[in-house]
Amino acid sequence: MWQPALRKSSKPIYEQLIDAMEGDVASGALPPGAQLPPQRDLAYRLKVGVGTVTKAYAEARRRGLLTATVGRGSFIAGAPGDIRVAGRDPTIDFSRNISPATAAAARLGDAFLALRRRADFADHLSYAPPTGHTAHRRAGANWLARSAGFTGADWQRLVVCEGGQHALALAFSSLCRPGDTVMTEAATFFGMKALAEQLGFGLVGLAMDEQGLLPDALDRAAAAGSKILYTIPTLQNPTGRMMGAKRRADIAKIARDRHLTIVEDDAYGHFAQGDASPPAIATLAPERTFYIATLSKTLAPGLRCGYLVAPDDDRFERVVRTVRALSYAPASFGALIGTQWIEDGTADDIATSVKAEIVARTKLARQILGKVIEGPYVAAAPHVWLPMSELKAERVAGRALRSGVAVTPPSAPIVKAGEVAGLRLCVGAPPDMAALERGLRVIESALSDAPAESGRDVV
Known about the structure:
Blueprint: H1 13-27, H2 39-46, H3 50-62, E1 66-69, E2 73-76, H4 83-86, E3 92-93, H5 102-116, H6 134-148, E4 158-161, H7 164-175, E5 181-185, H8 190-199, E6 202-206, E7 208-209, E8 212-213, H9 215-223, E9 228-231, H10 245-257, E10 261-265, H11 269-272, H12 281-284, E11 289-294, H13 295-298, E12 306-309, H14 313-326, H15 333-344, H16 346-369, E13 383-387, H17 390-402, E14 405-406, E15 422-426, H18 433-449
C-alpha cells in the first residue's frame, strides 16, 4: 500500500498529501489503477486526523487524480475497468512525440474554476482576432522568454496557433508556392514532410553531424538557389542532436550573406533549458527568422496551442492574411487554458513536472539500451535516436511491432536517403513508467535478435 513521503512545508497536511500523490503519479510509483489505502488506515500510519486524509482524497478526486467507488475504494485515475483504459490499444507506442499529461490533468479542474472568474471568459465564445486574443499573445511572449529563453519575442508580431503543426502550415503557406524548394536537415520532422506534400513544395535534405545541420551544406544549397531553411536546432527531431552556439552563429551568418529566410522550430526548447542551451537562432538573426514554439509539448498535447513569431511587419501581415484564408481565426479555449496557467504560474509547475518525468524516462531508456542510443545530449530528451542502417532499422521495427511495440517508421523522417538512418523512440508516449520499461525491453530484445551486419551501422 502507498506510503507517502511528506516533506517539511508550510502547506496544510492535506495539500502535502496531494503534492506527494502527484509526485508519485508523475514518477510512476503510483501507476494508473493503483489502489490507495483506506482513509482511516492512512491516517493512522501518518498520525493525522481522518478528516485530513478525507479532505486530501476529495480534492484529488476533484482534480481528476483519482477515482472512488463505494465498496471498492480509491484508485489512481485510469484504473482497470475505467472506460478510457478498457478501450485503449494494448500496443505500447513509441511513435508519437508527446509528453505525459498527468501533471496537467491534476490541475485541469482548478483551471476550469479559475476560467469562470475571468472577466474575459465569455468573450471566447465569439471569434478571436486572426492573431489570437491580446491576452493570449502577451502570455505567449512571456512564456517564450520564461521557458525557452527567447527574451526578444515581440507579442505584437506573435500569432496564436492551434499547435506547432498549424504554425508550420501558416508560415510555409505565407512563404511558399507550389514548386518552391525548402532546405531541411537530412532527417526531419515527419509533419514537415507531410506539409510539403500537401502544399506542393519540395524538400532538400542537407548533411548533418553530431550538432545537426552542417553550415557548408547549407551554403552550397543556398548558392544553388534555395532561399528558405527549416531547422530544428534544439533536440533535433528525430536525432535529438543539439546545435552549439558557434554553429548557430554560422547558420545565421550564412542566412544573412545568402538572403535566406529561416523557419526555426523550437518545440523542445524547454527541455534543454538548464543544460547550457545556446540561444535561439531567432535571437541571432531576428530580421529573417520565423520562430515556432508550442504548449502541446511542454504542458499537454490536447491544448493544441502554439505560437508563431514573424520576423517583421510585412511577413506578419502575410501570416495574418493566411489565417483569414484558412481558418479565419484561431480556436480560443485551448489557448485560454494555456494563458490562465501562464499567468498564475501553473504552467511553470506543470512544465517542471513534465521535464522531471522525461528526465526519469530518458534515464531508464539509457539504462536499458545503453550505448545503442546516440547521446542523449540533454538529461530530458523527449525522443532518443538509435543510429543504424535503414535495413536493420526496418527489421528491428518489424520485430518490435510483432511484440506489441510501435516505433516511428524508419523511413518517415528521412529526406535524403543515405545521409542518416536509424530509429526514433519517443519516451514520453507510453502511459507510465511500467509500460515504458516493458516497451524498452522489447526494443532491447529486437535489437539483440537482429542479424549482425558487416560494416558500420552509423552514418
